[in-house]
Structures are given as C-alpha cells and as structure tokens.
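Structure ticket #2291
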Amino acid sequence: MKAKIEVYLRYGGMKFSYEIEAADEDSLGVKAREHCGAIFADGYRHNTGKGEFEWFGPHWIDKIKVKGLVPTCYPDTCCGT
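Resolution: structure written out below.
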C-alpha cells in the first residue's frame, strides 16, 4: 500500500511531495503519522538534485497532507462560518 505525503511551506507557496509504502493499512497509518510528526518537529529536508541540500525549519511548515488510505479511530468534521 502507498500514500503520498505533501508538505506545504508557509512562504513562497511551495509544496513538496513524496510517497511512502507499507505492507498493510495499519502499518501505513503508523508510518504516515511518524513522517508527519518528524516533519513538524524537525522541519523538511530536501535534496535539490543539483548537489544542494535544503532544510526548511519547522516554522516554515504550514501544513502536511497525507493522500491515501490512512485509518483513524478519531474521525472529525470541519466547517466554515
């Protein structure tokens, strides 16, 4: 099973994404939560492919989305006013 992690930066409107993979749905959920927690705690690291390494600190992270089947025991709803 696969899921895509999308990291949205607060400044510049940039979005980075990558895929994670696990054997089953539960393992994928655990792995996705670990990745998201680490990104919010430590920031996002990125290799540019041009021999450069970028590290965006946690204060640059606006949000993280996980696209794919990630189970939860705490479903919620959201609405605007």
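Closing remark: Residues 2-67 form one domain.
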